[in-house]
Amino acid sequence: MKYGGSGWGSFVRGGTRVTKPLQVCKGQVLLEQSDQFHARNVVRVIKTFDDRIYCRFVDPKDVRKPRSSWDMEFCIWDFEMKGIFKLYIVEAVQ
Asked: What does DSSP assign to residue 4?
């Protein structure tokens, strides 16, 4: 399947798949794959709760920067992590 989005840049998957919000912490960078939108992006965790996380898209070439000035934070619920949104902890760069 071909994916859109900003892509993963030089990151490779290879990391642990996140299926529970408390597996990650604020500030952590994750690779996101959305089967619903056929997109791959890099995100930074903004807030975590027992049942959801809030993220913001970041530039895959420089994760210190937002992807764009108009990107807002968004929520991913625990049930979405087990289905349409696949999140991976960044563990390797090509």
From this structure: B
Q: Which of the 8 DSSP states describes residue 69?
A: T
* Per-residue pLDDT reduced to its tens digit, 37-77: 889 999 999 999 999 999 999 999 998 898 888 888 999 99
Residue written as tokens 């529970």?
20
Q: What is the DSSP letter of 16?
A: P
CA–CA dist 70, 68 (Å, integer): 6
Ordered by where they begin, the domains of the chain are: 11-93 (2.30.30.100)
Tens-digit pLDDT profile for residues 81-90? 998 889 998 8
Q: How far is CA 35 from the centre of its chain?
A: 13
